[in-house]
Amino acid sequence: MVAGWFAGGGDGFRLLGTRCSACASVFFPREDVHCRNPGCCGGDLEEVPLSRRGRVWSYTDSRYRPPSPYVTNPELPWEPYTLIAVELAAERLVVLGQAVPGVTVGDLAVGMEVEVVPGVLHEDAEAVWTTWQWRPTRGR
Fold first, then answer.
1. How far apart are CA 97 and CA 50, in angstroms?
2. How far apart are CA 74 and CA 36, in angstroms?
């Protein structure tokens, strides 16, 4: 888990970003030092929960084992996964993340609604690394 990037569980799970008090720009991953908007003089940065739902902006699948620091067991066969870029309209930004297991590029379309949910990036006998994943709402 990356500290400060998300919080909560179940229906309370949210990605956490930051908003500049001077220009209202929202950042994810969060920014805790200075406003990244080049047209802003800078303001205080406050933590804000991001929208739980957004629209598919783009998507693809990962058919190869990525290099380190991605955590993977080279002894196990590689299992492709789907990546989704999701537009959060209220925040005016796009957030990239994995789809929930079982969702393929064939299940997706640009513009369809998805929601953020907690997921497992990797687990072993000592720890579970959590992350966020995108799940199609399909009328939820």
1. 14
2. 38
Residue 140 reports pLDDT greater than 80: no
Query: Amino acid letter at 105?
Result: V
Cα–Cα distance, 106 to 75 (Å, whole number): 28
Quickly count: other Cβ atoms within 10 Å of residue 39's Cβ: 7
Angle at the Cα of 95 from the Cα atoms of 87 and 68, rounded to 5 degrees: 155
Is the bond preceding residue 69 a cis peptide, omega within 30 degrees?
Answer: yes
What is the number of other CB atoms lying within 10 angstroms of the CB of residue 8? Answer: 13
The alpha helices in the chain, defined as continuous H runs, are none
- pLDDT, tens digit, for every residue of 73-89? 788 888 889 999 999 99
